[in-house]
Write a structure and sequence with these properties.
The chain is an alpha/beta fold. Helix content is 38%, strand content 21%. It is built from 15 helices and 19 strands. The chain has a 6-stranded mixed beta sheet with strand order 5-4-17-16-18-19, sandwiched between helices. α6 links the parallel β6 and β7. The longest helix is centred in the first third of the chain and has 17 residues. 42% of the residues are buried.
Length: 395
């Protein structure tokens, strides 16, 4: 894969001018030189602005997981793909290599296939920020199923509206989740919801908290039991450029949640390119976005963008103030994070705490800091730059 990172401002302006002058040629080159395809496209982009219809990489064949996993195995197989940092700092972090992630995804894809999931089926995922969430998404993508992640803080009614809207055939959840000093019972929320979701045939349950949960015979299955029996070999589904990859729903804060459908090729190319350049990612960097994967930032800049580029990405289960208000800074120091991407709301909250919580940690590994999700006010930005970036990180 060609190194398509924009190193400096003059290089940025050069690339920007190319993208404006001849966007079709620009994206044709980016897609051709940096991604793996089963079949090349016949047309880069076709659009009808009156109908609001846009098609990228017409007739191309691909699978995003081949770009996230398969192509990295020969050169990055033993490199850490995911660092999972659990809610409780006393629990050991997991370092999951690309080889290991590839095996987990294949086995999980076989579990889904054995349960009757096929290309085009919708699978809703209601999991906390644990490795199984990433694995489930990639497994769906590998077999051509459309995943729809539901933020694991939503109520049963919110689950019902999203599941029914996309006619999901399966739900993947866990026995519970940890959030700070709380233990949440996710399975009971799903039990309440599924009774109102006629399209759901099966519920797969991941063990996380070891809560006692009700398991309905014939409908509910422990993921662990099925996973252990599954084969590690899986033939990746070849997808068309415009085949659906995932559906992600709006929060519903301004009305009924709306399902946003993202197709395969255009999403892959843009997400891979923007991740590499926005964060100036270099080989062996440790990248951390604190968003929840239940939102688009998490899809693009925790999972797909980093893995497309063979990066090491941190998945954090916890909250910034547990067990103390320095948890973010402790994690940065612990894992030598080089890029840190968080929300203005979190920054403003942590800025209210004593600066000593930040200053006592070695944050010298940081090279890039950023905020996402909403505009950031000047005061919060300067605090972020001064105390976290130490006025040295790129903004």
């Amino acid at each position: 894969m060609r190194n398509y990172v924009i190193e400096d401002l003059p290089h940025y302006y050069e690339q920007y001018k190319k993208s404006i002058k001849n966007p079709k040629k620009f994206w044709d080159n980016i897609a051709d030189q940096n991604f793996v395809w089963y079949q090349r496209w016949s047309k880069v982009v076709k659009y009808d602005m009156n109908e609001a219809k846009i098609t990228w990489f017409k007739n191309a064949k691909l699978n995003i997981t081949k770009n996230c996993l398969d192509r990295h195995l020969s050169v990055r197989g033993e490199k850490t793909a995911i660092i999972w940092e659990p809610n409780d700092p006393k629990e050991k972090a997991q370092h999951i290599s690309y080889n290991d992630l590839y095996t987990r995804v294949n086995k999980t894809a076989n579990v889904l296939k054995e349960m009757g999931i096929k290309k085009g089926d919708r699978v809703c995922i209601y999991l906390p920020m644990i490795p199984e969430l990433a694995v489930a998404m990639l497994a769906c993508a590998k077999l051509g199923a459309v995943h729809s992640v539901i933020f694991a803080g939503f109520s049963a009614s919110a689950v019902v509206s999203r599941v029914n809207d996309c006619s999901a055939k399966m739900l993947i959840t866990s026995d519970g989740s940890y959030r700070g000093n709380k233990v949440l019972d996710l399975k009971s929320i799903i039990d309440e919801a599924v009774g109102k979701c006629p399209t759901v045939k099966n519920v797969l349950v991941v063990k996380r908290t070891n809560n006692e949960v009700d398991m309905q015979e014939g409908r509910d299955f422990w993921m662990e039991d099925l996973y252990e029996k599954a084969s590690a070999d899986f033939v990746t589904q070849i997808m068309d450029a415009e085949d659906p990859l995932f559906i992600l729903y709006t929060s519903g804060s301004t009305g009924k949640p709306k399902g946003m459908l993202h197709t395969s090729a255009g999403y892959m190319v843009y997400t891979g390119y923007t991740f590499k350049n926005v964060f100036n990612y270099q080989e062996n960097d440790i990248y951390w976005c604190t968003a929840d994967i239940g939102w688009i930032t998490g899809h693009s800049y925790i999972l797909y963008g980093p893995l497309i580029n063979g990066a090491t990405t941190v998945i954090f289960e916890g909250i910034p103030t547990f067990p103390e208000p320095d948890r973010f800074w402790e994690v940065i120091e612990k894992h030598k994070v080089t890029q840190f991407y968080t929300a203005p709301t979190a920054i403003r909250s942590l800025a209210k705490e004593s600066a000593e919580w930040v200053d006592k940690h070695d944050l010298s590994s940081l090279r890039v800091i950023g905020s996402v999700g909403e505009p950031i006010n000047d005061e919060a930005w300067h605090w972020f730059n001064d105390h976290v970036g130490r006025k040295n990180a790129r903004l």
